[in-house]
Structure formats: C-alpha cells, structure tokens
Amino acid sequence: MHLIETHNLSYAYRDSVRALDNVNFVAPRNTRIAVIGPNGAGKSTLFKHLNGIVLPQSGRVLVRGEPITKKNLKEVRKFVGVVFQNPDDQIFAPTVEQDVAFGPTNLGLDEKTVMHRVDEALGLLGIEYLRHRAPHHLSGGEKKRVAIAGVLAMEPEVLVMDEPTAGLDPRGRDDLVRFVNSLSSQYGMTVIFSTHELDLITAVADYIYVMDQGRILAQGTVPEIFEQEEMLRKIRLDVPVIPKLCRSLRRRGAEIPMAYTYEEAEAGLSTALALRVRP
Amino acid sequence: MIEELFEIERLAYGDSPVHRLDARVKIVVTFAAIIALVAYPIEASVYLVALVFALLLGLLLAVSRVPLRTFSLRLLAILPFGLSILLFQVLFPPVAFASTTVVLSLPFGIVVSEEALEKAAMIGVRFVLCIGFVILLSSTTKLQDLLTGARRLGFPAEFTLILGMMTRYLFVFGQMFLRVRNALSTRCFDPFDRSLPYAYRIRQLGNTIGTMFIRSYEQGERTYTAMLCRGYGKDAYLFVPKKPLTAPEWGTLAGCMLVVIGGPLAVFWLS
Fold this sequence. Notes:
The structure holds 2 protein chains of 2 kinds.
Chain A: E1 4-12, E2 18-27, E3 32-36, H1 43-50, E4 58-63, E5 66-67, H2 73-79, E6 80-83, H3 87-90, H4 96-106, H5 111-125, H6 140-152, E7 158-162, H7 170-187, E8 190-194, H8 198-204, E9 207-212, E10 215-220, H9 222-226, H10 229-234, H11 241-251, H12 262-277
Parallel strand pairs in A: 3-8, 3-9, 6-7, 7-8
Antiparallel strand pairs in A: 1-2, 1-4, 4-5, 9-10
Chain B: H1 3-7, H2 17-20, H3 23-39, H4 46-64, H5 68-91, E1 102-105, E2 111-113, H6 114-140, H7 143-152, H8 157-186, H9 198-229, H10 247-270
Antiparallel strand pairs in B: 1-2
C-alpha cells in the first residue's frame, strides 16, 4: 500500500477538454516526486485530487489505501498538505502567526499544541522573525514560506507543492531545495511538487512523472526521464543543462561519466581534466 | 454558487441565426420593443399589442433555440421585482380612478378595486414582455459583443470601457474566490463546521473577506498603473473596428422594427 495512489483517474472541467485522462499516479513513503509538463498539462488538477479538493469523475484516488469520502476528508487533508502556487490565495490572517495557527486550530487542537506547532513550522522555514508581521507587507519569497509553514503546521505526512519555486530569487530557490531535501531526509516525508525549472529537479527528485494533455506520458528516475530528450522537446520541455552538456561532450568523445547534478558533474569533469593535465 | 457565474455566458456562446445577428440589431430591436410597449397607453387594446409582441418574441426565441426552461427560470428570477411594483399599484394606485368597484377592503383604509387590478394586469403583461426581450438579448449575445455593439451605436466610450473592465474583473475575482476557498478547505476550514467555535468561524470569514478586499484594491492599483504604462488617459477608449451591417441584417432589423413600430400603431388606430 502506498501513501497515495490514483487509478485511471479522469477529470474534465465543464464543457472543456479532458484535464486528466486515465492517470495512474503513485506516491510511496519518503520519496520526492516531481511532476513536470507544459502549461495546462493537468498538474494542478491532479494535485487538487490528492486531498479531495476535487473529487474524481471517474477512476479512484486512494489515500493510505482508502478512497476519499466526506467522512475522512478532514483526516485526508491533515495527512496530505497542499501548498498552492499563489501564496496570496492562502494567506489571509492579519498576522503571520495567526495564519500559521489557522490550520492546526481547525483540526481542533488546544492552544498550547497550536502554539507549539506554530513555533515548529516557523522554525523549520527560518521565519520566526516574521511572526508578528502583516502578510500583505511581506515580499514574494517570504509569503511563499509563510504559505508553506501554514500547511506544515498541520503536520502532514505528504506535502504537495504546486510550482513552489515560481517567483523566488536564486537564493530562495536554493533554500527551498535544501528545505525539501531535509523534509525527506530528517522527517521521512513524501514531497510531491510540480515545476518548470528542470535544473532544479536533478537536485530534488527521486522520481519524475511527465504529464501532457492530461495524460502521464512517462515516469521514472532522473536518468530514465532525461534520457528521452526527443519526447521532452516534443511537449515543450527540455533536458536540464548539466546532463545535456555531459551528453553532448560524451557524444563528441570526451571520456567523462554521465552526470545529472552539479556535484556529480563537477567531480566527473575535474577527474577527467586532472587526468589530462597530469598524465 | 460561484460556479454559476462562469455558466452565465454559456448560452450566449451558442449558435443560431439570432446568435449570429450583429449585436447592434439586437440592441436596437430590444430597446425599440421596450419603448413601444411602455409608450402604448394603458387601455384594453394593450393586450392585442402584447399578443403581437409575444408572437415576435416567441418566433425569435424559437429561432434562437434558447431552452424554454432557462428562459422561464431567468424570467422567474426577475419577476419578484415587477410583482412588488404591481403590488403597490394595486394597493396604492397612483392615479385616482373616476369610479371604483371595491373588490376587497383591507384595514387602514386600503382598498383593492377592480380598476386597479385591471391596470396592474396590463402593466404586468408589459413588464413580462419587456423582460422577455431583455433575456432574449442577454441569452444570445456575449457581454463583449454587447459592449462592442453599444460602442458602435455611439454609447459613450467611458461607459463601455468601465463596463468591459467590470465584466473582466468579475470573472477574475470569481476565480480568485474559488482559489481562496480551495486554500481554506485544504487547511480544513469549513464555515459550517460546528465543532469549531462560532465566533472563531465568523472571525476567520471576516479575515478572508477583508483580505479579498485588500487584494482587489491592490489589483485595481496594479491594473491602473499598467494601463497608464500603455498610455491610458482621459481620451483612451477600447478599440472597436468599423463593421457595416450585412444586407440580411438590415432586412432582419427592418422586419423587426416594422412589427415593433407598425404593430402598436395599427392596433391603436383600429381600436
């Protein structure tokens, strides 16, 4: 049994083309899953199914092996936290502290527990200093972190993030990468996210789903997916810079190992270069 | 409920000879019909005029293939406004009648007379028909086409620009509301959840509405700045290219106007 599974999930918005078409998606324990695809591929619609914001029109969504019903909706939403793309849609309380406390309060926790969770969540994202600020005075990156803290305060076991890096500066993006990796390594959480920043994926994802026009076009590990350059290009995506560079160098006869992350490439290239410089 | 907002225009995206008709023709015919109906004196022959207009409306409805059910529902939704006017008409007639036949005596000296009822019925028929024409117009014409049509008819650019932006942002905020609602339910907030204290739920709802207000205000500022960047000023208006009416459109306009103007005149002289 996986944490989340969907079986032949299909969904169409009123009068429009299919947003999801026979989607079979699996989220195992403690994995970091990237969902990539062009705009309008159905990523957000899929995410809305994972915590019952949208109920399946056909097919099934199983959370811990059980379908989402009215009865377990609260449990499901506590278990699967979703962070939407635009933090403004989510943050609404007069202060950051109150906003982060919103979720746990709705779960019916007592004040002491709520405060504890707020402390934890703010600490996890390193934004204790924002505690008493008004959300509409925050910068984009700060708002993003508040939005994530607001969901983490519910202590979900699966964190779903729609375009978490959209609008973040390079430092903010690096922080987010580190943060996602720590959620997985320290807390054993499963993180599911969508992104257009392919360079990010190699450093964060264990597994990739490629979506296009509501269908899952491909799935696999980082090397498995980024081997298929033609397929990715066909749906307006691309291969990240590092594997692309490694592959073209190898094609030209350079004897370097295939690399996907910056660290791998750095190690591989310096060994190769060192060999040539000092034979 | 908010989902209905996105449905409101669906009918107007249909296809029929009435849908394809230039918006100007539809606007002119609709307003002509309303003016003719309202201008006709309130006397017994108004029913005959009403019959002529009802036939025209029925014909146009049939051609437009607007479902009768939707049409009736929309009519029903507006009817209470007319009924309240009629109620006042019956209970407190604005004009004193030469002679009255009392049907019902109510306390406080309020009297319901036969004459007042008759007059109310005539006004009621006019009201229903006027609304009928407006519903036909709105069910077969997209909001944007209505605005473009009005603009081509010489409606002031200031109004069409503002109305156009209003409809645009109505949908923007409708979508924003949906996203906010999703975000709230993701964090397990349900305003009808009785396990949470009442005051708490009210306060959170208040916060949500307040935030939406701030966001719409800020959106307004941003849009205005963006408009300024593209040269918006007091002489700015929406671009509306010239488009002459086709011969069939002129024909339809002439035919409809003949009924709308000729019908009441003929009835008036004959009676």
